[in-house]
Amino acid sequence: MPSPYRFTTPPPPKSATGRTAEVYEQLAQDFGIDRAVTFVVLSSAPEIMAAVWALMRESLIAGAGDRTGKELAALGVSAANRCPFCVDAHTVLLHATGDHALAEAVARGETPRDENHARVLAWGRATRIPGAPELTPPPFPRAHAPAYIGTALSFHFINRIVSALLTENLLPGNAQRFRAVRSLAGRSLAGTVRRRAAPGAGLALLDDPGPGPDWAQGTTVGPAYAALRDAAGAGAGLLDEGDRIVVRETLQDWDGTHPPLGRDGLPGLSRPGARLAVLAALAPYRITDEDVTNWRKTDHADHSLVQLIAYGAFAAVQRIESALPLHTAEESS
């Protein structure tokens, strides 16, 4: 079977020890997939793998609010980011919630019949665009805001990792494109998806990350977000100051649109590190072998590539977060 990995060769999950092994254990228990390639591809950088799992777990899986709604938000984010792998995955997970008609309506590109479902899906899509009208008022109670916002931001990060470092095939031969396969795959995950997980287990994998942003303080989403911010931010050390300025200024001016084909508006090959980081932020599906080869040196192992892609991906997350209408967790209580 062809490898699902692009540009890296992750360590075999069976060889995992320490924190990486603990992530796989939690994945099996709380996500229903013990070796999800979405996380295996990050295992060359365990600190990033653990942090993004913690954020996804504490928001999507264990956070406040309806799982169906959060899956719709994640699906909307994935569609906005043009990540077919993640769109297919969340369609399967909607089947796992038991709402098969909703899952298939979304798979056909239809607007959900339920008005709130439609608003949540539209909100997820709109999170990529600063100031989009679909963002206000938010389609969830204030008490659920940390979980919904954490879900959206975690998938803005995950989408970029997947698009950069994995192929598009969720299942061999894109079998998930068949309705029967989607339904069957969802039913196989139903027991796990419909079971409410207790908050906090993901934080045991982290190294004292701090409380996190105001919108998530008082919840387990906050420390998980802070951990991912710190872990992904370490990738800045792979760039020189000029490259970091290019990344920062490009993201400051970004309006959420997908960059046009060609090199206009993107760093050129004279700055291969900045180019990779900016592509990871804005259009990770456009990263090529040439882009990676031009940056990679003898000391740039898989860990370094994952770090740099994560740095660019989280730069986009921070730009998106800065433009979201946010409520603090204290206001939600």
SSE inventory with pairings:
Layout (H helix, E strand, L loop, with lengths): L17 H14 L5 H4 L5 H16 L5 H14 L3 H14 L2 H8 L7 H12 L18 H21 L13 H15 L27 H13 L7 H12 L19 H11 L6 H7 L6 H22 L5 H4 L1
Note down, in words, how this protein is organized.
With 333 residues, this protein is mainly α. Helices cover 56% and strands 0% of the residues. The chain has 15 helices and no strands. The N and C termini lie far apart (50 Å).
Amount of helix? 55-70%
Number of β-strand runs: 0
Radius of gyration (Å)? 19 Å
Question: Mean of the pLDDT scores?
Answer: 93
Terminal residue distance: 50 Å
Q: Please, how many helices?
A: 15
The proportion of residues in beta strands is under 5%
Order of helices and strands: HHHHHHHHHHHHHHH
How would you describe the shape? Answer: globular
Low-confidence stretches: 328-333
Largest sheet: none
Alpha-beta content class: mainly alpha
List keywords for this structure.
333 residues; mainly alpha; globular; disordered C terminus
Provide a quick synopsis of the model.
By secondary structure, the chain is mostly helical.
